[in-house]
């Protein structure tokens, strides 16, 4: 079997659901199980409705109800389908009334709130698949075996889920039924709805693929796959044919927002291939993600960037020859819950990069107790994912490009994975750096 996951833009309206139906029809012989996200911007509209209910006491589900009822009409579905979703809309309204009275939105309540998007999506799509001759069964994730802990907003599946999922889904697939399953959500042991947090619906799909030992997991989005650069910066960017899980994770972490690293973990454990495809352009080959890929003559796979980065230089000559300097520095970051992106070290200094969203006010006094500290804001990370055996060539060419275009490199780091080479530049020069590096390595 295979797993096919379709994101919110892929099921945004009736026209998109028709397109998804034709894509699924071409894969029926491979016994697909489907995972769907909420339609379009439904999740944003749900959170917006809750915010309005808290701030003003007004309860309105018009945007959510309007989109789904309009889609029912676009798909010419029978009145019975609306009868099936009306109780969900009423349940949503009652929840928002509670939010308006309590004037609070806990993580538990928020998980319950956003679950309505996926639950509505699978019921409408499942009904349309069946009407088009693809016998489907809409399933909430907990009915497909997903049982999680009670860590609301960032839940983890319990071990028993891995046995329950194939035990429930495999008989349906063998009978020729198309399971249409909610992504992103689960239920804990007390029957409370949770969300899986990082990786979202993509992670739901890879969990099912790994648990059922699927041939592959397909993740259908609105891009042709993982690209050689951000197409908003480099219009000539093209899809990468194949990457390893490690390379895909590095690309995602440093700015290529196609597939969250956390979403790939289940498939990494079972060596299940992941195929990223474009539901708007099904004929495009997409990008395959494997545990290993064939060697290519191309030294670089892709170039990405992440802006709004803060660079911190930490220097202490007092620590020459003394152990424990790094330990003290990183203990400060750990105490304040700050995640470090890049690190470059010498015996007396450390340079680190952080996301600029962190509040440095409580962090800096602790650092200045052990070293001299200089903070530089307005920086960006430019990352090259390539063949480590050609790192000298890649770095020589990259620095030559930077020199020719007067781009000052302020820090360099090579990841422990050995597939990424990253450097810091000023934020305003990040796009220029990516453009020129892409021209050097791909044109």
Structure, described:
- The chain is of the alpha/beta class.
- The protein folds into two domains: 2-222, Acetylglutamate kinase-like (Carbamate kinase); 300-442, VC0802-like (2-Layer Sandwich).
- It contains 13 helices and 17 strands.
- The strands form three sheets. Strands 3-5-2-1-8-10-11-9 form an eight-stranded mixed β-sheet, with helices on both faces. Strands 13-14-12-15-17-16 form a six-stranded antiparallel β-sheet. A three-stranded mixed β-sheet has the order 4-6-7.
- Helix 3 (62-74) runs parallel beside helix 5 (107-131), helix 7 (200-211) packs parallel to helix 9 (261-270) and helix 8 (245-253) packs antiparallel against helix 9.
- The longest helix is centred in the N-terminal third of the chain and has 25 residues, at 107-131.
- The protein starts with a strand and ends with a helix.
- The model has no long low-confidence stretch (mean pLDDT 92).
Strands in their spatial order, largest beta sheet: 3-5-2-1-8-10-11-9
Q: From the 3D structure, determine the CATH topology of the largest domain.
A: Carbamate kinase
What is the CATH class name of the largest domain? Alpha Beta
User: SSE order in H/E notation?
Assistant: EHEHHHHEEHEEEHEEHHEEEHEEHEHEEH
Strand content: 15-25%
- Output the CATH homologous superfamily of the largest domain: Acetylglutamate kinase-like
Count of folded domains = 2
Helical residue percent?
40-55%
The rounded Rg comes to 24 Å
């Amino acid at each position: 079997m295979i797993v096919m996951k379709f994101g919110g833009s892929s099921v945004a309206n009736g026209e998109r659901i028709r397109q998804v139906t034709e894509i699924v029809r071409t894969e029926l012989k491979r016994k697909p199980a489907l995972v769907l996200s909420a339609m379009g911007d439904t999740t944003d509209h749900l959170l917006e409705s809750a915010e309005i209910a808290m701030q003003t006491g007004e309860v309105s589900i018009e945007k959510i109800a309007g989109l789904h009822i309009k889609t029912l009409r676009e798909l010419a579905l029978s009145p019975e389908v609306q009868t099936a979703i009306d109780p969900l809309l009423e349940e949503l309204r009652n929840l928002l009334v509670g939010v308006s009275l309590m004037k609070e939105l806990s993580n538990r309540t928020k998980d319950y709130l956003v679950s309505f998007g996926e639950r509505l999506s699978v019921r409408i799509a499942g009904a349309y698949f069946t009407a088009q001759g693809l016998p489907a069964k809409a399933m909430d994730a907990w009915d497909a075996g997903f049982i999680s802990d009670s860590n609301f907003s960032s839940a983890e599946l319990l071990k028993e889920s891995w046995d329950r999922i194939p035990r429930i889904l495999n008989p349906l697939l063998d009978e020729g039924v198309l399971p249409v399953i909610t992504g992103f959500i689960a239920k804990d042991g007390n029957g409370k709805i949770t969300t899986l947090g990082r990786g979202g619906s993509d992670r739901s799909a890879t969990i099912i693929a790994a648990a059922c030992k699927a041939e592959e997991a397909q993740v259908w989005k609105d891009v042709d796959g993982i690209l050689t650069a951000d197409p908003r910066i480099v219009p000539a960017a093209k899809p990468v044919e194949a990457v390893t899980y490690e390379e895909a994770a590095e690309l995602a972490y440093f700015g290529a927002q196609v597939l969250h690293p956390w979403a790939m973990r289940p498939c990494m454990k079972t060596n299940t291939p992941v195929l990223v495809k474009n539901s708007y352009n099904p004929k495009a080959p997409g990008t395959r993600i494997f545990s290993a890929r064939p060697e290519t003559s191309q030294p670089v796979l892709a170039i990405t960037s992440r802006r709004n980065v803060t660079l911190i230089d930490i220097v202490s000559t007092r620590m020459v020859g003394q152990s424990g300097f790094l330990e003290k520095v990183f203990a400060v970051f750990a105490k304040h819950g700050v995640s470090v992106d890049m690190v470059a070290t010498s015996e007396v200094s450390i340079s680190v990069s952080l996301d600029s969203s962190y509040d440095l006010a409580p962090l800096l006094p602790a650092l200045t107790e052990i070293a001299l500290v200089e903070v530089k804001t307005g920086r960006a990370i430019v990352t090259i994912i390539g063949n480590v055996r050609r790192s000298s060539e890649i770095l020589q060419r990259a620095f030559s490009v930077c020199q020719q275009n007067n781009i000052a490199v302020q820090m360099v780091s090579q990841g422990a994975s050995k597939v990424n080479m990253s450097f810091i530049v000023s934020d305003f020069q990040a796009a220029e750096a990516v453009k020129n590096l892409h021209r050097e390595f791909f044109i």
